[in-house]
Design a protein that fits this description.
The protein is built from 1 helix and 13 strands, in the order E-E-E-E-H-E-E-E-E-E-E-E-E-E. It is mainly beta. Strands 1, 2, 3, 4, 5, 6, 7, 8, 9, 10, 11, 12 and 13 form a 13-stranded antiparallel beta sheet that branches.
Length: 243
Amino acid sequence: MAHSNPHGKDTVFLHDQYNLTSSLDSTSIDRSIAVLDTTVFGLDSRTYTPGQKDGSVSVEGFADPAAAGIDTILTNSFGSASTSVTVSLGQTAGSNAYLMDAIENQYATTSSVTELVRISGEYQAAQDGVDAGVLLLPVTTATASANGATHDRGSGSTTSSGAVAIVHVTAVSGTSPTLDAIVQMDDNSSFTSATSLITFTQATAITSQRTEVTTSAERYIRLNYTIGGTDPSFTFAVSFATR
């Protein structure tokens, strides 16, 4: 039986406005939810109900003490109350992705006489656990406005209790460059009646932004982005999940 299991080598790791993929070789995603006991007198078996969501992500890789290296990035964000993290299990639009508003709560360096210096870190979900979604736009360098690929959530999946998306802008150049990114939705794949689901704040420099909405998402989702300025160039990615 054939399988479409993704290869681990295609994993992408985005931390705020940084693409740390080239420094890492291992990541682990842990999603959990509390199970609360609701058993009462008269029952012959226990009953339970779901409680609060939780989650964490751990990473391992190679040390890089340069000014823009992973050591500096993880050291500067250590203990921060809110770090936007996307882990994608592929490098193309539609790849499975995991999104979280995280606290980087662990960072370690390991040195051995026979090995390269290694680092490890852990991110604890600050809220909402770890959302499972897709890479709506893979890491892309764009110089002009466009629409991203269409994501089909599938028939019968048009209801949701909200959505979350993260934009990671990792590089910017040009004179007065601007990037306006909008997650659009529609009930048809041609987007003849597209409406805005999530609108990010305009980006003019490297940045990241995580935005949540309570609006119910329609079946078809895509990213629409408008780029302005003189000789502008943006390298960015967008992850997305419904709830």
